[in-house]
Amino acid sequence: MAYRMARRDFFRQTAKAGAAAGMAAGIVRPASGSASASIVVDPRPLFDISPHLYMQFMEPLGTTDGSVEAAWDYDIDDWRPDLIRVAKDLSPDVIRWGGNFITFYRWREGVGPVSGRRPMYNYAWGGKESNRVGTREFVDFCRRTGARPLICVNLLSEGIAGFRKTVHNEDRAGDAAEAADWVSYSNDPDSRERKQHGDPEPYNIGLWQLGNETSYKSDGFSRDEYVRRLVEFARAMKRRDPSISLIGWGDATKSDGEDFWAPHVLERAGEYLSHVAVHMMNLKPRRADTVLRGFEYQKAPEQAWEELLDLTRVAENKLLRIKEIVRAAAPRVGLAITEGHLSLRPHNVNPILQEWLTGVFHARILNLYQRHGDTVAIATAADFCGTRWTVNAVMMPVPARRGRCYLLPVGSVMRLFKRHYGKAAMAVIQAPASLDIAASGDENRVFLHVANMNYSDGVETDLSVRGRSIAGGRIREIAPGDPRAYVDAEQPDVFCPVEKKLPAGSVARWRFPRASVSVVELDLAVSGKRENAIQRGEEG
Predict the structure, then answer these.
(1) Which of 19, 86, 136, 268 could be cross-linked to 405 through a Cys-Cys bond (beta carbons 3.0 to 4.6 Å apart)?
(2) What's the CA angle centered on 153, arms 165 and 191, to 5 degrees?
């Protein structure tokens, strides 16, 4: 997998940086000694960061969380305007239409005249879905927020027999022909069905995931049957549009297991795939005396902080295992982490996720994905939007008149990192041990995503870029002061970043507040030699 560099000379530098590319970008060598040791960046590009790295996903969640139904404003028959605004500001690269509900979703029930759309039972999450939001509305949401749509398709209900004949006497399994028809409906310029529904132009949906969490379902397909069906679906869908990119499933039978499906999927079906997916779930407490349960963290917030940092290592260990598998089996295939969040009790509604106690945890997870962006092409750290779950990026107060949509801590960190990063990864070759950093940039700028893991103290440090002078820069930081700070409808902007200027000089100095998450943007001075070359037109 590779992404095109913006400039040819920049691409040539990548080849020269082969030795540096042997390690993941930004894997920091912690400095020994005091916490004031320097941050040193090697500006040579290691690899291009995927243009799809920052993802969100949307799933109708039935009675558990008013997600898609609450996102639609029936008074104006359109998306909630405040959700559009906050999602556009969040600026995801990709939004995925998928999740557990895809095992019983029949896409034709959500297209065409609204009066003729059939409501569906939500067998995963309870209740019913109106299907007021379907393919057309989802694509519209993506276009209005600047994201690429990713569709997850019903792959024969993952082989679960209960969806062949449900308690409501329905057959909810979608076959390869149905998936191929969905591709044609979305992408064929001459689709009569879509035109009859009022859309003469194609939706041009380029990303499609085949099934969801198939290996987790003990009553579903075996690994070999999944691979066989995957090939069947891929061939049918590619015949309709050869340009689409397909994502297969590669996780283990348990989300924290070792028996990954990826090597078998890539060996037998890798020719059809651009990505293989895993989910970064099961990030749950490991300690017997855990306080990451209910409100117990409030009695010992510093222990909760330490436990959360320990859980980032669980995510890293899984990522390193699956990355090694993917690179060995199919180096051109990217890794897609299409779901992932903390798994705390009560299920998906632990109140700690509204507090800044989780901010640095999420920053470390996102830094981990960027540092391994030579393989990780799509990733998320949250569910998308809802009214109840605290694992969401966006919270929607209901009814809408009670407050506007706002970002939970994970959404605030995702927004900060997504809006401010470079196109190519770089290595951080030295840094204080208490700072977790991912670096990126281009010829003229360096971006540092910095998480201060110190619960109690700030970290003062020099910042330098090897071989380059710093002409100036700026810091955008989320530093509420108290890790127990929280966000809700009464104070929706509490985690908005504050921008500050950075002084010019070959070496800059900054103090990162305790428990803070920051983006450092360094403007690099143009050397006299390069400036003369630019003026002569040798660079451009």
Answers:
(1) 86
(2) 110
478's tokens: 């989320």
DSSP 417-464: HHHS--SEEEEEEEEETTEEEEEEE-SSEEEEEEEE--SS--EEEEEE
Mean pLDDT of 483-492: 97
Scanning 130-191, the segments in alpha helix (DSSP H) are: 135-145, 176-187
Stated as kind and residue range, the H or E segment containing 472 is strand 470-478
Peptide bond into 346 cis (omega under 30): yes
- Which structural domain range is residue 344 located in? 55-289+315-419
Are 270 and 250 in contact by the 8 Å Cβ rule? The answer is no
Residue 365: per-residue pLDDT:
98
Calpha distance 195→179 (Å, rounded) = 19
pTM of the model: 0.92
Quick one: tokens of 13?
Answer: 């530098």
The residue whose two tokens read 């041009």 is: 204
Rounded to whole angstroms, the Cα distance separating 268 from 230 reads 10
Per-residue pLDDT tens over the stretch 422-474: 999 999 999 999 999 999 999 999 999 999 999 999 999 999 999 999 999 99
* 293 three-state secondary structure: strand
Question: Which residue blocks in 188-300 are alpha helix, DSSP H?
Answer: 192-196, 223-240, 262-269
Number of domains into which the chain is organized: 2
Q: Are residues 376 and 513 in the same domain?
A: no
CA distance 478 to 474: 13
CB-based contact 91:420 (threshold 8 Å)? no
Per the structure block, which two tokens stand in for 148?
A: 């690429």
Residue 251 included in any domain: yes
Amino acid in position 153: V
CA angle (52 as vertex; 47, 103 as ends), nearest 5: 135
CA–CA distance, 322 with 378 (Å, rounded to integer): 14
Q: Which residues pair with 426 in a beta bridge?
A: 439
Place of tokens 């530093």: 479
pLDDT, position 282 = 84
Number of H helices, E strands in the chain: 13, 25
Grouping H, G, I as helix, E, B as strand and the rest as coil, residue 100 is: helix
The CATH number of residue 262's host domain is 3.20.20.80
